[in-house]
Write a structure and sequence with these properties.
By secondary structure, this protein is mainly beta. The chain has one domain: Sandwich (Jelly Rolls), CATH 2.60.120.260. The longest helix is centred in the last third of the chain and has 7 residues. The chain starts with 19 loop residues before the first strand and ends with a helix. The relative contact order is 0.30. Bound molecules: calcium ion. The site of calcium ion (CA) has 10 residues, from loops.
């Protein structure tokens, strides 16, 4: 995973405080996700993008429940720290599935990204379903008595098996002195003009 400690870009959605850093990721380097929970396929594709030439294509493969992919992880957080994350999603089914949401989960002190330590909630809005829209949420960190220090940024799909959505242009604003991880580049970057088809039929 990439380790990012410097302010690289200032995003459009929110202006970070002076003591905060920003990282953005648009899937341009062929990466996918950091981890996942549940039965969901994540593929780097080039067919439907918000900006650039690549995006992340998610196919819900789970009969019931809510699978999710982990697109960022901030560690070293303490009580009261604020983390803001935004992402663009592509959904063309107003008021119906498939839909997706941005969500958060805590991780335990010294644990991995998969060491789940409780839900952090998120943005419950499913969006207008009329194409690309930006969703986001600000989390105020709760260490639960010092037992957790990480926050995973997740995208959850709400749909039937085989349904799909695209996401792009993730931005995370996190406190100075903490560490943010985003998906790492694929090597080599796969030509995935047909990535969506491969994801559906492999
Ligand atoms: Ca992109």
């Amino acid at each position: 995973m990439k380790k990012l400690l410097l302010i690289l870009l200032v995003g459009l959605f929110a202006v970070p405080a002076a003591n905060a850093a920003v990282v953005t990721y648009g899937w341009e380097d062929g990466g996918t996700i950091l981890s996942q929970y549940g039965d969901i396929t994540a593929t780097n594709v080039g067919d439907v993008v918000h900006t650039g030439a690549r995006s992340l294509y998610l196919v819900d493969q789970q009969a019931s429940g809510t699978p999710e992919v982990f697109v960022a992880w901030v560690v070293g957080l303490t009580d009261g720290d604020e983390v803001t994350a935004t992402i663009w999603r592509y959904d063309t089914t107003p008021g119906a599935s498939p839909s997706c949401r941005i969500w958060g989960g805590y991780t335990s002190v010294g644990g991995t990204i998969d060491d789940y330590a409780g839900s952090a909630g998120g943005n419950s809005d499913y969006g207008p379903g009329t194409g690309w829209d930006q969703t986001g949420h600000t989390w105020t960190f709760d260490s639960s008595g010092g037992t957790r220090d990480g926050l995973v940024i997740k995208v959850r799909t709400y749909s039937s098996p085989g349904d799909f959505v695209w996401v792009d242009d993730l931005e995370v604003i996190y406190p100075d002195g903490t560490t943010a991880y985003i998906p790492e580049a694929a090597s080599p970057v796969e030509d995935s003009t047909w990535g969506g088809i491969k994801a559906l039929y492999r």
